[in-house]
């Protein structure tokens, strides 16, 4: 195999490669990558469920280039980037708040922001619809309005650049300024306490209910709501539009059909194709032994198409009943934003269709952003 699972993320069609991984190397060491690769459903489940494997290298909990900056402080507080007992408690708080997010309001806001973006006429601003609209909605749900929603959407674009290991010093510096500004924007909503509507009030209410008293990690995880939304939801909308342009599914005629399509695209062409784990203790899978310090690349997008868990996995079928889906992770770090993400992507799609968008407006074979884990078409 000449492709690596990292290069696969941006291939026009990575799925034949993933199918070979699932069939021939479901859990194996990849010398070119310098990491173990978990590809089939059983291996992905086992890896994500293991306490020996952590979300960060134990020796570098925060990337060295942002340690000591506002970006580093936010990063170090994120439930996504930490393990252990405090993470478990804070994750329950975060998940409760997101579980109570008003997805109908999110859909209405997404539709309104989409209409606003389309109002100028001319070429469809796909980038704004994919990245800007979902981030603005989450910002608005967090109480940012009157331009602060758009400012937060721009700032989160700068913040997420510090997350890949390949971030440059300039990107890390921009991320630090963005994190400082995002904290300023979001802190008042946390300090206002748990009264009233909105995501931040839900977060404080959940924290109070769990006797979690520290406010700074709540502000950081509110920044996390925006960063977790940004690339992933852009990929979900983009991959849905590309699936329609390729004729892989019928154009949905109503909101229910749009929702079903988006949720099947989550499995079929995962916006987050892989995630990583770092061994803090020895981890065994079959005959393989992962030593402390070694990495595991978890290919969620390959496991989604494992024929052992999904029948006819290569077919995009919005009518699937109870598919096995790994795109939102599993176990301790499972994504708590799934319903919100699906509501956002479906609302933007329906609004685009209502405005006359047709799949033929898009190329069926776009290029993809050169990212290591998010699959986002360049539209
Ligand atoms: C299509 C969109 C999305 C996808 C594909 C996605 C995927 C994921 C995945 C794979 C993880 C786990 C990573 C790992 O275990 O290594 C995760 C974690 C997380 N996601 Fe999402 N996500 C999406 C949207 C969202 C949204 C909209 C929010 C909130 C506004 C959100 C909030 C989170 C949070 C807080 C975590 C950390 C959970 C933890 O580590 O315990 N996500 N997401």
Task: Please tell me about this protein's structure.
This protein is of the alpha+beta class and 379 residues long. The protein has a single domain, classed as Cytochrome P450 (Cytochrome p450, Orthogonal Bundle). It is built from 14 helices and seven strands. Strand 5 and strand 6 form a beta hairpin. Helix 6 runs antiparallel to helix 7 and helix 7 crosses helix 14. The radius of gyration is 20 Å and the shape is globular. The protein binds protoporphyrin IX containing FE. Protoporphyrin IX containing FE binds next to helix 5, helix 11 and helix 14.
Which ligands does the model contain, each kind named once? protoporphyrin IX containing FE
* SS strand fraction: 5-15%
Average pLDDT: 97
Number of separate domains: 1
Secondary-structure topology with pairs:
Blueprint: H1 5-8, H2 15-24, E1 27-30, E2 35-38, H3 41-49, E3 53-54, H4 70-77, H5 85-99, H6 103-118, H7 126-141, H8 148-159, H9 169-191, H10 199-209, H11 216-245, H12 255-268, E4 275-279, E5 283-285, E6 288-290, E7 295-298, H13 300-303, H14 338-354
Parallel strand pairs: 2-7
Antiparallel strand pairs: 1-2, 3-4, 4-7, 5-6
Protoporphyrin IX containing FE (HEM) binds at residues 55, 79-80, 91, 94, 98, 138, 224-225, 228-229, 232-233, 236, 271-272, 275, 327-329, 333, 335-337, 340-341.
């Amino acid at each position: 195999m000449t492709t690596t699972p990292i290069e696969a993320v941006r291939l026009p069609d990575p799925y034949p490669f993933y199918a070979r991984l699932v069939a021939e190397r479901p859990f194996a060491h990849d010398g070119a990558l310098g990491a173990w690769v978990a590809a089939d459903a059983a291996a992905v489940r086992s890896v994500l469920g293991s306490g020996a494997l952590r979300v960060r290298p134990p020796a570098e909990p925060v990337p060295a280039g942002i340690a000591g900056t506002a970006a580093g402080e936010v990063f170090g507080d994120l439930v996504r980037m930490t393990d252990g007992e405090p993470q478990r408690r804070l994750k329950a708080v975060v998940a409760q708040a997101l579980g109570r997010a008003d997805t109908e309001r999110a859909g209405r806001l997404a539709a309104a922001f989409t209409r606003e973006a389309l109002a100028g006429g001319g070429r469809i601003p796909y980038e704004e619809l994919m990245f800007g609209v979902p981030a603005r909605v989450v910002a608005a749900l967090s109480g940012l309005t009157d331009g602060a929603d758009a400012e937060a959407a721009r700032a989160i674009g700068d913040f997420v650049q510090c997350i890949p290991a390949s971030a440059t010093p300039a990107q890390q510096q921009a991320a630090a300024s963005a994190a400082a500004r995002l904290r300023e924007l979001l802190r008042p909503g946390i300090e206002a306490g748990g009264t009233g509507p909105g995501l931040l009030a839900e977060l404080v209410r959940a924290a109070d209910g769990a006797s979690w008293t520290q406010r700074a990690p709540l502000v950081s995880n509110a920044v996390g709501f925006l960063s977790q939304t940004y690339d992933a939801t852009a990929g979900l909308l983009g991959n849905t539009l590309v699936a329609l342009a390729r004729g892989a599914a019928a154009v949905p005629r109503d909101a229910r059909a749009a929702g079903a399509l988006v949720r099947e695209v989550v499995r079929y062409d995962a916006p987050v194709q892989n995630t990583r784990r770092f061994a803090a203790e020895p981890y065994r899978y079959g005959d393989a032994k992962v030593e402390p310090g070694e990495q595991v690349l978890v290919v969620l997008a390959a496991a989604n198409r494992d024929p052992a868990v999904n029948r006819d996995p290569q077919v995009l079928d919005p009518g699937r009943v109870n598919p096995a889906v790994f795109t939102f992770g599993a176990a301790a770090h499972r994504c708590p934003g799934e319903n919100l993400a699906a509501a956002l992507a479906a609302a933007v799609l329906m609004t685009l269709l209502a405005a006359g968008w047709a799949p033929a407006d898009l190329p069926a074979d776009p290029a993809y952003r050169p990212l290591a884990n998010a699959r986002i078409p360049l539209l």
